[in-house]
Amino acid sequence: MRFSGLRVLREGLTGNRGWQAHWRDASPKDAYDVVIIGGGGHGLSTAYYLAREHGITNVAVLEKGYLGGGNVGRNTTIVRANYFLPGNSEFYSHSLKLWEGLEQELNYNVMHSQRGQIVVFHSDGQRDAAIRRGNAMRNQGDDAELLSVAQLKKVLPYLDYAQARFPIYGGLLQRRAGTARHDAVAWGYARGASDRGVDLIQNCEVTGIDIEGGVVKGVQTSRGAIRAKKVAVIVAGRSSQVAAMAGMRLPIESHVLQAFVTEGLKPCIDHVVSFGMGHFYISQSDKGGLVFGGDLDMYASYAARGNLPLVEHVMEAGMTLMPMIGQAKVLRSWGGIMDMSPDGSPIIDRAPVEGLYLNCGWCYGGFKAVPGSGHCMAHLVATDRPHKAAERLRLDRFRTGRGLMDEEGTGAQHNLH
Amino acid sequence: MRLDGDGLIDRSRPLAFTFDGRQHLGFEGDTLASALMGAGVKVVARSFKYHRPRGVFTAGSEEPNALVTLGHGAGQEPNARATMVELYEGLQAFGQNAWPSVEFDLMAVNDLGAPFLGAGFYYKTFMWPRAFWEKVYEPVIRRAAGLGTLSRKTGPERWERAFAHCDVLVIGAGPSGLMAAMTAAEAGADVILAEEDTRAGGRLNAEVEEVDGQAGHAWAEAMRVRLAAMGNVRVMTRTAVVGGYDQGTYAALERLATEADRALKGCFWRIVAKRSVLAAGAIERPVAFANNDRPGVMMAGALRAYVNRWRVCPGRRVAVFANSDAGHRTARDLKAAGVHVSALIDARADAVCDLDVPFYAGGQVCGTVGRKGVEAVRFRQGDRIEAVQADVLAMSGGWNPSVHLSCHMGGRPVWDEGLAAFLPREGAVPGMRYAGAAMGAFSTRGCLESGAAAGRAVVEDLGLQAVEAPVPGAEDGTYEITPFWHVPGKGRSWLDFQNDVTVKDVTLAAQENFTSVEHMKRYTTQGMAPDQGKNSNVAALAVLADATGRGIAETGTTTFRPPYVPVPIAAMGAGAKGKGFAPERFTTSHAASVARNAPMIEAGLWYRPSYFPKAGETQWRQSCDREVRMVRDHVGICDVSTLGKIDVQGPDAAAFLDFLYTGMMSTLKVGRVRYGLMLRVDGHVMDDGTCARLGDRHFLVSTTTAAAGQVMRHMEFAHQVLRPDLDVRFASVTEQWAQFAVAGPKSRTLLEEVVGQALGNEDWPFMACGDVRTGGIGARLFRISFSGELAYEIAVPSRYGAALFDLLVEKAEAREGGPYGMEALNVMRIEKGFITHAEIHGRTTAFDIGMQGMMSDRKDFIGKAMAARPGLMDEDRAQLVGLKPVGAVKELIAGAHLFAPGAEAVSETDEGYITSVAFSPMLGHVIGLGFLARGRARIGEHVRMVEHLKGSATLCEVVAPGGFDPEGGRMRG
Amino acid sequence: MRLPCPICGERDRREFYYAGHAVALERPGEGAGAKAWDDYVHNRENPCGETRDLWFHESGCGAWLVVTRDTASHAVLSAVLAEEAAR
């Protein structure tokens, strides 16, 4: 069924009885060409692009909970392409281009809103780093602009320019950056994949990976064994557990990241704004809630919930940068499980086991990568060759030291990125 | 309207307030909601999506409708729940999300579009044309959405934060909480009793039932007074426990009683408790039927609270609809208060009634009639539809225990068929026990007993002896309920009043395969409004369970997350506004620098002088250039105390430093200083600095300002985790010593005067160090140079820092010298090609900065193995070079990228970037440092700098870093 | 979250700095080879459940601790001085 304004009108006039399931719930078959472990944003987009770009439709997505229940459904919805190191630059640039027009591609309004992101900086050193970053973005063909304090005051009049502990020197603006409705992205890809014949199987937990002679043969699940020619592991924070089923130890440590939303407010923050002197980023959802977050809690965790020190630190950062949000009340806080890699950048690569493919290490930037990750992963699974935009996202870079993408410059400590 | 009788308000203290500009009167003890009710205001808000008129619905923090804005201007508070706002003289409240007013709202036109605005409609449209999303659709949607408005200004309000510790935290001071607290306190436990309301008592304040032969509220107040008088008890009213965290940590929000002119709003508490008792009560749940959201429809328990506690009623004729004895209780209290009950409709077919009111057993309300308020109630009994005149409909669908805090650590509640409610799961939160209505004990006596039992259980957990005490007598009625969620029929039946989610939305979600409870929530926005589904979640999932043919238990709940009630960002981030965000560190020369009008800039937490302007200098470059020349020609003084200083001592100190630094420190002679690099475990440069050997077993390590903390932590790690076998101890002495660079050709004579001894090259050669005396005190002298000049750094205990700085500056000024700031320091180090964290930014290796030769192959050191990875020694890596503009444009920009001349400036051709730039007054042109692929082999070649953001490009010559005095003769002079 | 520092007693999480899995205690020899060093610096078992990790009581006594913890429940089972665990 095609979605359109006309359809909404027609259904509205006839009691909305004609709407159908957005995707088909499938039961597992005995065998598939490709089994994707993980029904989150990246798994669903991989399934979609396998079908859409490569004509591979004998595909199952196995999800132990509900579709889109992982980080795609619990992030701060920011979409940007403002990385500066080779590898990240071209990958996120590629992903942003896929975001543009995603509604029309999926016939699903994912509300991708290119409202602009501004990273505020607070010293000469930070300004120089912003210029380096902005130029890397421009070299990549993406947009970036440097805003002076005077320009910033016009765009973000509510920042504390006068009293703040760390005075504001300016900002780096990417107009094409913005937000999207996170759940809708998962649902849109699910619908698109399902329409093309992919089996989406919820409540199906993978309990083992069958490997014979170094070649993957299928998976064991809570709903029985499934044979597969190729298996793609796309499970973010759970990567280590699934990789262990294939006898692998990954360069991943799972951490909790919290996020927050306030009650609905009339429009007051029109961009995505990030603070340069402490981890803090904020935007306002179309419903009116301020959606914001900060740093990791900084301890390995699978609990999908965090603790007060980080909560308070995020609020402190918000209060010093934009004290006007003080009267906004937080309604809800939550946590997700982040697959932190040693350089803070992702991995899309073949595993040492033939027929097994890895997609992990998204740290806490995985949401904006959803289209690009699926697109490149599908290319890798279908052709056994990396997509050009993801050829630097190699697993062996840590061992060799070649092509590390340590944007934060904090080194091989998983939680510091 | 206001009823006769006392209640818990003080009629001798009337309070004037305004709502939407109209003046009203209330009384001390009123909430804004009760005062509005007393004043006859019915429509207090508009709904989120359809702009339906809405009235007060509850009497607690779960209020979904009565959200108002308090005050106006910078400090205005949007989305205040009128049910929780204590009335005060001069209070100004405003309706919100309406234009021009909540009474008459043109946006109500949205309601006509309801058939097209159902669950998730926006996912299916607004996609064409593509550019319209940001330009047309989204702005319109954003303006329509949202509730109240932030002022976008910094408000005057202030919050505090504090810690508290106790043995037992009792959450809720209703009958069960009071009993639990008393039982624990009498056993000797340290108790905190937290209550969200302004007074203890919970439902006892809303009901007429007695406890121990006295009015319930009077018993509760007596208990509160007794508890408050005990030395081991802290009773915290107006304090909502909002979150449960690990190891017995709880978050609580304490509001101060509101006063018009008080900026301090309250306190955000972190309470650490060995044990806790969840006695948070229960929340009454509505029933979904057509137009159940009209002003006048409200919860029965809330209506009893308004009638009994505040002596107000929102109308004159009340219909009551319930599926338990709550209906009878409500009708009884109304009659006692003299309010006309026009119907008591009990959904239970076998219910009986002994009250003199029109009674309809087995009846179901199927709709309300009216415009901005209920005028009549329609109900079905058997196959007849009847209508009664009523302007208030009180309803009860049963009670949902407030299990929230039991679920904050990931526990899921358990469905209880008998009570038709979710109960907290045993053991869901370590150390937490449950009591009263929160665990499904719904009679007063049941609450008292379970509270006492929970109190005994926690004191026994703590190893204390509970004192036996009788439980007071109270009503002990049974709770008989027929689960009842939704009356089928035409029209829209609201579940989530705040987000305008109706039964149809939930069934549509199920029809579209959003059958997981999480999918339903996210698709319909059910439970995502300010009340977080406190009123509606259970009914919504019951509707979903129905639509999908599953049971409620199987359907499950969404996740309960902190905070339990909305908490202002200002409360959780209290104290961080403005300068409060981070501590400020000041050097001993701070005051002197400020007195000389030096602009102070942030360096980490420190403040350092940028430059010292002289009369006639109108911009920083003039001052900076002068200071550079001053140092190079005469002498300059610079406070370098912010650099980290770590004192290292012990028999194995030298071996330890060999393990830390890439170079050998054990071969350093006493009285000498060596430059050193420390690597991270992954082989990249962590920091650079000097290491001075003060004695055979005594070293002083210096770090950069930025990395001082990191290096200290790293050293502790290296010692405690990696080499505990080494007998070495160290301590940060950064703040114990004030240290000043004295740089320039006249530095020697200046310092000879200060320390009273000769400092010639024989005794004090380059890189010498040792003890000296000045002004009768011991000092340390280091002949090191970050400027490339003949230079020293002299350190004294911090208490003498200010005096020494003044002395040094005075002597420098006598020699045509003076103080210099960070700008000049930076220019001089770039002239010399010395690196800072602009170059060692965490991604550079010793190889990149040309210091691979400093990596000793005679010993192991941290980072050595990983630095040997092929990728870290690759000739193609970007290497440190100097740059000089040779094109028409004579500027360089830090952050600009480098390309081969003639190459297009794109990622594929990117060869490097500039890290540091300065105008060198000595060389007479701009100089830069940067990283260039294969840079060391390209000295003399040309590259092109391109800076897209400002639109600048120029040709540069690649030069060796450090064009000024490359042989270093001045430094060694 | 609170951790039982063997020197200071139970303290709030905000006094501590976290540094990852206690595998850091088992530093390979200089010439242990690329694989051993890769495993030491990068690869992690990353258990969902009981783990041992390293915490630095930075705003307290300055001790590095090996804490045994559950990553699923956040239960803290024990804490010992790294200095002693490393010996």
Report what the structure shows.
The complex is a heterotrimer of chains A (417), B (973) and C (87). Chain A is α/β, with parallel strands linked by helices and 417 residues long. Chain A folds into 2 domains: 5-77 and 183-251 and 343-416, FAD/NAD(P)-binding domain, CATH 3.50.50; 114-177 and 254-340, 2-Layer Sandwich (D-Amino Acid Oxidase, Chain A, domain 2), CATH 3.30.9.10. Chain A has helices at 5-13, 41-54, 88-99, 102-106, 124-139, 149-155, 182-195, 239-245, 308-321, 370-383, 397-400, and strands at 31-37, 59-62, 78-79, 117-121, 145-147, 170-174, 178-179, 199-201, 206-212, 215-221, 224-233, 253-262, 272-275, 280-284, 290-300, 329-340, 347-350, 356-360. Chain B has 21 helices and 50 strands. In chain B, the strands form 13 sheets. In chain B, strands 8, 9, 12, 13, 14, 15 and 28 form a 7-stranded mixed β-sheet that branches. The radius of gyration of chain B is 37 Å and the shape is elongated. Chain C contains 2 helices and 6 strands; from the N terminus they run βββαβββα. Chain C is globular and about 40 Å long. The termini of chain C are far apart. Chain B binds chain C through residues 163, 245-249, 270, 272, 409-410, 430, 681-682, 713, 716-717, 720-722, 724-725, 860, 864-866, 869, and chain C through 1-2, 10, 12-13, 17, 19, 24-25, 27-32, 34, 37, 41, 54, 56, 58, 62-64, 73-76, 81-84, 86-87.
Per-chain topology:
The complex is a heterotrimer of chains A (417), B (973) and C (87).
Chain A: H1 5-13, E1 31-37, H2 41-54, E2 59-62, E3 78-79, H3 88-99, H4 102-106, E4 117-121, H5 124-139, E5 145-147, H6 149-155, E6 170-174, E7 178-179, H7 182-195, E8 199-201, E9 206-212, E10 215-221, E11 224-233, H8 239-245, E12 253-262, E13 272-275, E14 280-284, E15 290-300, H9 308-321, E16 329-340, E17 347-350, E18 356-360, H10 370-383, H11 397-400
Parallel strand pairs in A: 1-2, 1-11, 2-8, 4-13, 11-18
Antiparallel strand pairs in A: 3-7, 4-6, 5-6, 9-10, 10-11, 12-15, 12-16, 13-14, 14-15, 17-18
Chain B: E1 10-19, E2 22-28, H1 32-38, E3 45-46, E4 53-54, E5 67-70, E6 77-81, E7 91-94, H2 132-144, E8 158-171, H3 175-186, E9 191-194, E10 210-211, E11 214-215, H4 216-229, E12 233-236, E13 239-245, E14 249-255, E15 264-278, E16 282-284, E17 297-299, H5 300-308, E18 317-322, H6 326-336, E19 340-346, E20 359-361, E21 363-370, E22 374-381, E23 384-389, E24 392-396, E25 399-401, E26 414-416, E27 421-423, E28 432-434, H7 444-461, E29 494-496, E30 501-502, H8 503-511, H9 517-524, H10 537-548, H11 552-555, E31 567-568, H12 569-572, H13 590-595, E32 600-603, E33 606-609, H14 620-633, E34 636-639, E35 645-649, H15 653-660, E36 673-679, E37 685-695, E38 698-702, H16 708-722, E39 729-732, E40 737-743, H17 747-755, E41 769-774, E42 777-782, E43 791-797, H18 801-813, E44 818-819, H19 822-832, H20 864-867, E45 878-885, E46 897-899, E47 912-920, E48 925-933, E49 942-947, E50 952-959, H21 969-972
Helix pairs in contact in B: 3-4, 3-7, 5-6, 8-9, 8-10, 14-19, 17-18
Chain C: E1 2-5, E2 9-12, E3 17-21, H1 34-41, E4 50-56, E5 64-70, E6 76-81, H2 82-86
Antiparallel strand pairs in C: 1-2, 3-4, 4-5, 5-6
